[in-house]
Amino acid sequence: MFRYLVRRLLQMVLAFFGTTLIVYALMFAGQGDPIQALAGERPVSEAQRAYLTEKFHLDQTGVGGFFYRYVDYVGNLLRGDLGDSLTGRKISDMLAQAWPVTVKLAIIGLLVAILVGVTAGIIAGLRRGGIFDNATLALTLLVLGIPTIVLAPLAQYFLGVKLPLFPPTAGSEPSIYALLLPGIVLGSLSLATALRLTRTSVAENLRSDYVRTAKAKGLPIRRIVSVHVLRNSLIPVITFLGVELGNLMSGAIITEGVFNIPGVGFNLFRGIKTEDGPLVVGLVSVLVVVYLVSNLVVDVLYAVLDPRIRYE
Amino acid sequence: MSDQFGRQGAVATAAAGGDGGHLLEVRDLFVEFRTRDGVAKVINGVSYHLDAGETLAVLGESGSGKSVTAQAIMGILDMPPAVIPGGQILYRGTDLLKLPEEERRKVRGKQISMIFQDALSALNPVFPVGWQIGEMLRLREGLSRAQAKRRAIELMELVKIPAAKQRIGDYPHQFSGGMRQRVMIAMSLALDPAVLIADEPTTALDVTVQAQIMDLLGELRRDLDMAMILITHDLGVVADVADRIAVMYAGRIVEHADVHSLYEAPAHPYTKGLLESIPRLDHKGQRLTTIKGLPPNLMRIPSGCPFHPRCPYARQECVDVVPAVRSLGDGRTSACHLAQEVLDGRI
């Protein structure tokens, strides 16, 4: 296990540099004049241009110059300095503000997926072929078929405007209540997938040989389901939800955009729109780390849940 | 545990049952699987009995209904799709099919227990074996965790698992095939049952391990004074262990006899075919004898005797009339129109 962890951590380092390099390259390759981009519409004087060229090492050109700047950037990153956004704000400050909102939103989404999705999945799996099973099948297919970009405005219009149960937008300092509807929208896709996965897993395990053994042992059916079947059925579900938490935390660009939630996805979206290279690269770098760590946690958790899986 | 089947009261209850005093008796049992594709008549009037301390072998090809009968006795068939339209399963004179589910559940493991073919899939992969053995003791007998663990170690020692104490925390996949089957056996013995049903216990094992497991089962049956139903398709396994044999075909018992008489002179063409298809060393170099054809589709069982399409002696009578079970003396029966002729070797 220890050797496995070391190997995975080394792989993470590689993955981190790889992804940041690609994002860095993509973000700055498309730019014509970065100094003009920084200044926006305002004119740039010769002195300012000289100063900025010096500051951002723009005097170095070609592939060598690119790598020089990349190494410089990553060096700062590793020291914990994410740099400044083109708007002049420190990216670390922006992240400190946006991050808690996104985490709250992700947790609401995940809770919805667990509470509704897994519970309904268990019931559907136990009553395979019944009315509940078929009804949830239809509903989940519907949810899986509607993209968030359609679902989010629909929910906002019907549950926020027409029937004002929830605030239609979240605002700058959103409360948990204001995040509830976006959280449900965000979690609905995970919910549907978790439901299908749980349902299939439960139904499959119910037919397994070890359940027959448990019956032959004279155990009450309640115990067979709640201990033997669930313990086995939830292994893939928990793995899925772990990966899903990583996905949800890495920002929900569409949901945060529609509901005007100042989270990571919202900032990322704005960064891409305004060609704010430092902001995009900074945010993506952090998201890459979040994603890599959550994947590692899931893999380790998998080995803990299933004794048949051992990492060498 | 002073439920109605206390082991001490065995003789008294059986006598009170007044049905000839068999420990376990299956009477004219029918089982169907009602599926979307149609009704499969899996068991068609099976009757057999088991007395205390004896071993009955139930022999038959895959799909002959031997396992389904056993699962009906245990009450672990999935219903639906399985339906039991008729028959009785008498245990110490009580019809198990008429018991409420809660009572029925208490019979499992405690009175009648069962082991299965593939111990790897039959054990829960995510719990340690000691936990799985102990679970029965904790839930059924109210033992504490520590007591259950001690007893689980004893049971694992009883079935001769080496270093039982160290292996109690191991998971099923960490055991070899033979050791896993021993774990299954230990679990089936946990509540000291009167009847053990072994459903092809050695099919998934190597030949050498098969012999060990069969020896162990025979030994345990004697030492613990159990009765055993041994379900198998392997005639070789049966001879040393069983007292009586019931041969099944297409959901019926086609022949029933004590082991020696059956091996000496079968009274049903199907049994005869089975015995002739055992590979023999002194026939080296010759083609193996087989029974031609395949077992019938249980959704379309042939008319008359279900074996007639494969039977070398079949006559018009066999196509038209379902053969009744004929008694041939000494408790031998055969469901064949030509039973006496086959027995006497006249055909």
From TrEMBL, chain A:
Keywords: Cell membrane, Membrane, Transmembrane, Transmembrane helix, Transport. Residues 99-302 form the ABC transmembrane type-1 domain. The chain crosses the membrane at residues 12-30, 105-126, 138-159, 179-198, 233-259, 279-305. Pfam families: BPD_transp_1. CDD domains: TM_PBP2. It is a multi-pass membrane protein. It is found in: Cell membrane. The keyword Transport applies. It comes from the Bacteria. Its main location: membrane. InterPro entries: MetI-like, MetI-like_sf. Belongs to the binding-protein-dependent transport system permease family. This is Peptide ABC transporter. The lineage of its organism: Bacteria, Bacillati, Actinomycetota, Actinomycetes, Micromonosporales. The gene is dppB_1.
TrEMBL record, chain B:
Keywords: ATP-binding, Cell membrane, Membrane, Nucleotide-binding, Transport. GO terms for molecular function: ATP binding. Residues 24-275 form the ABC transporter domain. It is found in: Cell membrane. SMART domains: AAA. Belongs to the ABC transporter superfamily. This is ABC transporter ATP-binding protein. The lineage of its organism: Bacteria, Bacillati, Actinomycetota, Actinomycetes, Micromonosporales.
